[in-house]
Design brief:
mainly alpha; 2 domains; 1% strand; 19 helices; 2 strands; 437 residues; Growth Hormone, Chain: A; 83% helix; single chain
Length: 437
Amino acid sequence: MNPTLSAESANLDALDDKRRMPRLYAWSVFALTFGLMMSDYLSRQVIGAVMPALKLEWSLLDSQLAMLVSVVSLVVGVLTVPISLVADRWGRVKSITLMAFVWCLATIACGMAHSHGQLLWARAFVGIGEAAYGAAGAALLAHVFPARQRAAVLGAFLSASLFGSVLGVVIGGAVAAQAGWRMAFFVVGAPGLLLALLYPFVVRDYKTVALDSTKSQGNASAERPGFQRVVREVFASRAGNFAFLASGLQMAMPAMLIAWLPTYFSRYHDIDLKKAGLMAGVAVLAAGVGMIFGGGLADRLSARNPRRRALVPAVYSVLTAVALMGAFALPPGPLSMGLIFLGALFAAAQGGCSSAIVCDVTHPGVRATVAATMALANNLIGLAPGPLIVGMLSDHLGLKLAMTLTPMLALAAAFFFVLSSRSYEADAARIRARVAA
């Protein structure tokens, strides 16, 4: 086995166990970091609620509307790793404060745009601000809370993306209906500025652990693993590589729903902007419920048959495709609406499963890099292209048919999950043997 990676992981765990932070301080850090995560996703997802108004005012094509959604995920995917590296070197607290100011001011700038090009640039800067926030925020929380609470705290932190997404489409739709789409951006962007101002006065950073330490543990050298070695470790597993592809493709489903459901409800169900945003928010909430419980169900079903760790998310993907293709193919009505919510329930249920698969089949010493790689795959394969594919198809086929065809990506995700299951047990066993050696 590679002693460097094992020693590095063991040393960090030992340091974590020795830390004790005052409870009031720890939960204050959590509250502020959670609040900024909500602001992050409010700024990201409000666009879906105002797209019908933008189309009406500027006579935009659906593909142009889709660009406004996808540009954020594209920028986040490209810049997540490099900006995370900068944050680790410059400092998490300073980086988070600057990032929050960037995405909040960029969101406010969206409300001042007078053309599609100006709005597209402003949305790109929203992505620049948000690119590494999740990684930097998680790093701070992992430092503040002890290891025994880490999974629960980080899970709660990530759930802020759900609440932010729901509020983004609901508040955006309500404000746009009452005061216009420009005010929706102002209302969503301003509160985050207050949190950003407060953050550096409450939260203390921690010193970055040196990667080139000469300390050793037993016979293990603690020198920094080279870049090529880390890349080889991240992509060494067939099961993990297929999981990257599967998760990325499946994430196009919640991205499509968040971006296009308000417009779909407005066009085909004859619902006003406020109610369309509310109904889309319910669908996003259903996706969050599926994400929370999907991983737990997979854990139970795979307890005796490890291959089910990857087969269960394959089933989620198939159910998503069948429900959504049926929903958008049917005439608007209660059955169509019910199938939309059912499809949303399974759309993101694979999230925890995919993360567990790649963690199970890669060395503990590179799991942070693996998590960043999963985020990269989700953004570049699914979150960015998904809404854009719908928009481009809609320009030629209509939005209804576009949303009927796009869930075929979920069937492709199921195929790759099945491929992942075929080598999962062997890959996981090989990692366990290396760590135990």
